[in-house]
Write a structure and sequence with these properties.
The protein has 506 residues and is an alpha/beta fold. Helices cover 30% and strands 24% of the residues.
C-alpha cells in the first residue's frame, strides 16, 4: 500500500494509456492541483483489456468492465490513489470499496461525425458513403437520421455503408484520410464530441488532432434524434472509500447537476441492461430524458420522460402559418456583402433560407446551423450541409457550442437570418441580424380565442394576439388559460407577460 497522501505532497492518478484517456486524466490532474496549491498529481498509465482487444467490436466480446478492471485492481492494491474513468464505461454495480469522489462538469453529450470533405463529391455522384463505428447504438440510430440529414443532390436518398472499426481516436480519424477506393478508406467516422474536445484542449494531443481535422466537415448529431450513450461526456473520479484525505482533495471538482443528469440516463441501463451491447441511447437535457433505439427483444423505442414530457392532448397548436402570410424581404447591398463574407450562418427557420434563393448565394463553404431538426431536413433536401442544430432551444443556446476549442468559432460574428419581427437579446452571441421575410396578418382564428389550452410554437402569434387586447381584464382572462410551449425563447416571452407556461417537449 502506498503511503497515506496526508504524508505526501504528491498523489498518483491511475488512467488508461490511450491518447484520449491520458488527455482527460491530465485535465483532471491539473484541476486537482489548481484547487489544492502545493499538491502534485502524477499520472500512472495502466493497460486495460479494452485497449488490448482491437480486432473485434466490444459488443462481440463476452463480459464487461473492459476499460475498468485493471484500474480497479491498481486502486485496491494501493498502487494509485485515484482513478479516472469515462462514466459511460462504468458498470452500475461498482465494488463497495470504491467511492465516487467527483463527477466534474460534463462536456457536450453529442455524437459527432467527422467526414472527409470529398463526401460532397460522392453524394453528388450517388456513390456509397462509408461511415465507421462499432457501436450498436449508433448503428441503430444514425442511419435514419443521415438519410434526411445529409445534403441531397437528387431525388434518391444517400447510399450508406457502415463499417465496424476499433482503435484510438487518431487511428479512427486516420481512416478518412486513406487512399481512395481502398478497403481502409472511410468517408466519415462517428465519435463522441466530448472526447475530441478533450483532445483539442490538451497541448500535446491537439497537435495531431488538428492535422487529422484538415480537409474535413463536421456534423453534430441532435440529441433528440440520436441520443448518446448514457453518461456520455461525463467523467467519474473514484477513490477508496477509506481514503478520506484523497476524497477531500477531489471533492471541489464535483458538479451535482452533471451527476443527477447522469443518474437519469443510467436508469435505462437498470431497466434494459447496459454495456456495449446496448442499442438504446438516452440523453437527459433540461429536465427531459430522450430515449431512442431498440430493446434487446427487437422492440423499437422512441420515448420522452420528465417534467417537460407532457401530453398535448386537448391543446390547440398555434403556428405562425395559422395567422400570417409570409412576404419576402429584400436584403440591402451591405447585408448581401456581409452575408457573402460571413463564414458562420444561422437560419432561424427554413423559410429564412428559402427567401435567399433568388440571390444565388453560395453556402457550400459556410458553416450552417439551424434552429431545429425540421429546418435541418428541409435545408438538407435543398443540398445544404448542416453542421449542427439547436433543437428548438433558441439562438442563445448556441453559447453551449461557441467556447468549444474543437469547433474553432473564434468569436467571429454570425449572420443570423430570420424574420423582420424577430428580436434577439444581444450580448451572448455575436451576430448580425438579417431579415429575409416578414409576417402579414391574415386573421386570428376564432378557435384560438375560444380554446382554454394553447400550445405556442413561436412567440410572434402570442404577441400578435396579446396586442389586440385593449382592456386589462381581457389580458387577465387570456392569462388564465393554460399556455404551453417549448423551452426556448417563446417560454421567456410568455413569462415576460406574466404567464408561467407548461414546457412541452415534442
Amino acid at each position: 500500500m502506498t503511503n497515506s497522501p496526508s504524508n505526501l505532497n504528491k498523489i498518483k492518478l491511475g488512467t488508461r494509456r490511450s491518447l484520449l484517456a491520458w488527455a482527460q486524466s491530465s485535465w483532471v490532474a491539473r484541476e486537482i492541483e489548481k484547487v489544492n496549491p502545493g499538491l502534485s498529481v502524477e499520472l500512472v498509465g495502466i493497460d486495460t483489456q479494452g485497449d488490448k482487444i482491437l480486432d473485434k467490436p466490444l459488443s462481440q466480446i463476452d463480459g464487461k468492465e473492459f476499460f475498468t478492471a485493471e484500474l480497479d485492481h491498481a486502486l485496491l492494491k494501493g498502487e494509485v490513489h485515484l482513478t479516472v474513468h469515462s462514466m459511460k464505461d462504468l458498470a452500475l454495480d461498482r465494488p463497495a470499496q470504491f467511492k465516487l469522489a467527483a463527477t466534474p462538469k460534463r462536456e457536450l453529450q453529442h455524437d459527432i461525425i467527422v467526414f472527409h470533405e470529398t463526401v460532397i463529391d460522392r453524394l453528388k455522384a450517388g456513390l456509397p458513403i462509408r461511415i465507421g463505428t462499432s457501436s450498436p447504438r449508433r448503428l441503430t440510430l444514425i442511419p435514419e437520421f443521415l438519410l434526411k440529414g445529409l445534403p441531397q443532390f437528387s431525388p434518391k436518398k444517400p447510399v450508406l455503408e457502415f463499417v465496424q472499426i476499433r482503435g484510438n481516436v487518431n487511428t479512427r480519424l486516420g481512416r478518412i484520410h486513406e487512399v481512395e477506393n481502398t478497403e481502409r478508406k472511410l468517408d466519415g467516422v462517428v465519435l463522441a464530441i466530448a472526447g475530441l474536445e478533450r483532445l483539442a484542449l490538451d497541448e500535446k494531443a491537439s497537435l495531431e488532432l488538428w492535422k487529422l481535422l484538415e480537409q474535413t466537415r463536421l456534423m453534430i448529431l441532435p440529441l433528440r434524434d440520436c441520443p448518446s450513450a448514457p453518461a456520455q461526456g461525463a467523467l467519474a473520479i473514484e477513490v477508496l472509500a477509506t481514503q478520506t484525505d484523497v476524497l477531500s482533495y477531489i471533492k471541489p471538482l464535483h458538479d451535482e447537476e452533471t451527476l443527477q443528469g447522469v443518474k437519469e440516463e443510467r436508469v435505462i441501463l437498470q431497466e434494459w441492461g447496459g454495456g456495449c451491447h446496448q442499442k438504446l441511447g438516452a440523453s437527459f437535457v433540461g429536465h427531459t430524458l430522450y430515449i431512442r433505439g431498440q430493446k434487446m427483444n427487437g422492440v423499437n423505442v422512441n420515448e420522452i420522460r420528465g417534467a417537460r414530457a407532457h401530453d398535448l392532448t386537448g391543446f390547440v397548436r398555434v403556428e405562425a402559418k395559422d395567422l400570417f402570410n409570409f412576404q419576402p424581404c429584400s436584403l440591402s447591398d451591405q447585408e448581401i456583402t456581409a452575408l457573402k463574407n460571413s463564414n458562420q450562418v444561422f437560419f432561424a427557420h427554413a423559410r429564412a433560407y428559402e427567401n435567399t434563393e433568388p440571390l444565388n448565394l453560395d453556402f457550400s463553404k459556410k458553416r450552417v446551423w439551424v434552429s431545429g431538426t425540421p429546418s435541418w431536413f428541409k435545408l438538407a433536401a435543398k443540398g445544404l450541409w448542416i453542421e449542427g442544430g439547436l433543437e428548438g432551444q433558441g439562438f442563445e443556446s448556441l453559447t453551449r457550442f461557441l467556447p468549444k476549442k474543437l469547433l474553432r468559432f473564434n468569436g467571429t460574428a454570425w449572420a443570423f437570418l430570420t424574420h423582420k419581427e424577430s428580436v434577439v437579446t444581444p450580448g451572448k452571441v455575436p451576430f448580425s441580424q438579417m431579415a429575409t421575410y416578414q409576417h402579414e396578418l391574415k386573421a386570428i382564428p376564432a378557435q384560438l380565442l375560444q380554446s382554454e389550452k394553447l400550445y405556442w410554437t413561436s412567440s410572434l402569434p402570442f404577441l400578435t394576439i396579446w396586442s389586440t387586447f385593449n382592456e386589462p381584464h381581457q389580458r387577465e382572462l387570456f392569462k388564465k388559460k393554460t399556455h404551453a410551449c417549448g423551452p426556448g425563447k417563446t417560454a421567456a416571452v410568455l413569462r415576460e407577460h406574466g404567464i408561467e407556461p407548461l414546457i412541452f417537449t415534442e
